[in-house]
Specification:
Helix 1 crosses helix 7 (204-217), helix 3 (63-73) runs parallel beside helix 4 (100-128) and helix 4 (100-128) packs parallel to helix 5 (146-165). The termini are far apart. The chain has helices at 12-23, 35-48, 63-73, 100-128, 146-165, 185-188, 204-217, 226-237, 240-247, 251-268, 279-282; strands at residues 3-7, 27-32, 53-57, 82-85, 131-136, 171-176, 180-182, 201-203, 221-222. The protein contains eleven helices and nine strands. The longest helix is centred in the middle third of the chain and has 29 residues, at 100-128. It is globular, with a radius of gyration of 21 Å. By secondary structure, it is of the alpha/beta class. The strands form two sheets. A seven-stranded parallel beta sheet has the order 3-2-1-4-5-6-9, sandwiched between helices. It has a two-stranded parallel ribbon with strand order 7-8.
């Protein structure tokens, strides 16, 4: 039976990866910082699917703790066939509004962990001549929306490079580049996305299903949905001054201003009267 290791596996896309992989008969190694939530998720999956679920409570931004996952990926007795580097989070505020320690910790999770774990997994998989690495990146990597976007750009380029290096080894590398997905990501970063139209959102089950299909085919880039494939291609080839103008770190402020203005317009069209008002008060 195949075994998959998933980081950031207690919420969002990571949780969905765990459930879908278990549903296809994969044993799991779930990695997350929240030990209580991690054990609860593992127990729920075991109750539904006949698979083995290991748990590792690890802060991937801590190099010593990261080494535990690195060692697990090189275990020759219970090897990992699929690595899903999914762990990540956003920070609220502009670059100068957030402390440098927080930026460093975020980049250690988004970049160093991907680098270290991909290296360990790839070397072990190449020896067995089979395996796959799936790195969760983002279409944000084609934009100029701050350090998070820059880190995702790195993940995409790194994965493309790794995929080419792994050619003819029996091992593949795929970068998943979703757009906006309905998960806890923005809520945890205290970011309100009310200004975005509903059509821009994707559902996590769909994104994960497409990613696993693309990884199984050996695709290097996985961009779910035609609308986001089109948007990604346009962002990639658009003149950089235009990209900077449309996706600078101020985009979130513009989004919030648009949301407030929309709410004002909706409120102005309503004839509202509180139940404690008298008829003459409302006039």
């Amino acid at each position: 039976m195949a075994r998959a290791l998933v980081t950031g596996s207690t919420s969002g896309l990571g949780l969905e990866f765990g459930w879908q992989l278990a549903g296809t008969g994969h044993d799991l190694v779930l990695v997350s910082r929240d030990e209580d939530r991690l054990r609860a998720v593992a127990e729920q999956i075991r109750d539904v699917h006949d698979v083995t679920v290991e748990v590792m409570s690890v802060d991937l931004s801590d190099r010593r703790e990261l080494e535990r996952v690195e060692v697990r990926l090189t275990d020759p007795v219970d090897p990992v066939d699929l690595l899903v580097n999914n762990a990540g989070y956003g920070l609220r505020g502009g670059f100068l509004e957030v402390g440098i320690e927080d930026h460093e910790k975020q980049l250690d999770t988004l970049m160093r962990a991907v680098l270290v774990l991909s290296h360990a997994a790839a070397r072990s998989m190449v020896q067995r001549r089979r395996g796959a690495i799936l790195n969760v990146s983002s279409l944000a990597g084609y934009t100029t929306a701050g350090p998070y976007a820059a880190s995702k750009s790195w993940v995409t380029v790194f994965t493309e490079s790794l995929a080419m290096e792994l050619r003819d080894t029996g091992v593949t590398a795929t970068a998943l580049l979703p757009g906006f997905v309905q998960t806890e990501f923005h809520e945890r970063a205290a970011m309100s996305m009310d200004g975005l139209p509903r059509i821009t959102w994707l559902k996590a089950p769909y994104v994960v299903e497409q990613a696993l299909r693309d990884a199984a085919k050996g695709s290097i880039l996985s961009i779910p949905s035609v609308k986001y494939r089109t948007a990604g291609e346009m962002s990639r080839i658009a003149p950089r001054p235009l990209v900077r103008a449309m996706t600078s770190p101020n985009w979130y402020r513009r989004l919030q201003a648009r949301s407030v203005e929309r709410s004002r317009r909706r409120a102005s069209r309503r004839n509202l009267r509180a139940p404690w008002q008298r008829e003459d008060d409302a006039l």
